[in-house]
Amino acid sequence: MNTVLEHRTWRYATKKFDPSKKVSEQDLETLLEATRLSASSYGLQPYHIFVISDQETKEKLKPASWNQSQIADASHVIVFANATDFGEELVDDFLTNVGETRNIPMEGLKGYSDFMKSKLLDLPVETKSTWTTKQAYIAFSNMMQAAAELKIDTCPMEGFESDKYNEILGLTEKNLNAAVVLPIGYRSEEDDTQHWAKVRKSKETLFTHI
């Protein structure tokens, strides 16, 4: 089996983490950098990622996560928070970064700026929030797969109360919303689900070649 498939076969939604095992700083930095390099629409990355290792904070988040043990037992809890609304600053900040990184005068980016703003700024707030959530999920998926390459276990989690996360982490005043959560760490030997065979649709059912 090639390594691409090996990593994805090894990965599973970890139900019980070993709280005594922590992700090293080196592996964490690799994981975060892999996530930073994720694709996003226009390259705008309209989200923020919270990396939570503080045990007290994890314990506060657990009741807001349907009391799932992974929140308290994982080495870190990663919260992907999408921007709930945005204005010109999203595009302006990005193009300032583009200009500085690629040594391009800002006037040379005006056409691209006008194009992005024409496509994004007049969208309804609800549509903006849906779009930013989709972008956060791209980064979330990349982190999950990068973790598998590092043999770091994860549990993708939508079973939580975002409004309570927003309150605990102070997200609302930052124009952010907790979109999806990824506890990371190392599986417990007591987690029987690690031995279960993956259940997925067959290739014939899932794919249509045209």
From TrEMBL:
The UniProt entry, under InterPro entries, shows: NfsB-like (IPR033878), Nitroreductase (IPR029479), Nitroreductase-like (IPR000415)
- What are the recorded GO MF terms, alphabetically? oxidoreductase activity
Domain of life according to the entry: Bacteria
For the Nitroreductase domain, which residue ranges apply?
Answer: 10-186
Xref: SUPFAM superfamilies? FMN-dependent nitroreductase-like
Keyword set includes NADP: yes
Requisite cofactors: FMN
Keywords for this protein: Flavoprotein, FMN, NADP, Oxidoreductase
- One of this protein's Pfam families, by short name? Nitroreductase
Q: Which family does it belong to?
A: Belongs to the nitroreductase family.
Name this protein carries in UniProt: NAD(P)H-dependent oxidoreductase
Q: Which organism is it from?
A: Flagellimonas pelagia
